[in-house]
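Before relying on records like the one below, remember that each one covers exactly one chain. Contacts with other chains, cofactors or solvent are not represented anywhere in the record.
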Amino acid sequence: MPEKFVTIVNHKGLHARSAAKLVALAKEYPCQIQLQAADKSADCASMMALMMLAAGIGTEVCVRAEGPQDHAAVEAICALIEAGFDEQDE
């Protein structure tokens, strides 16, 4: 089960729009993907679960995946997070 730690870098953190982008990307992969922040864990297929993590800017999260294409899924999710969810901070 591959895992990788990344830090939330966008100013608004993991909010509704960024969670929606993460869910859409996760659904492209046929594996189970989890995002963990501190002692909370969320299924990346659930926007509500991701938002309940309350992961703000500077929060270190762990991305884990298990199943087909798990390594590619972890890399893609981490790239999205590292890119600030492709948001233009205002």
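Residues 13 and 88 are 13 Å apart (CA to CA).
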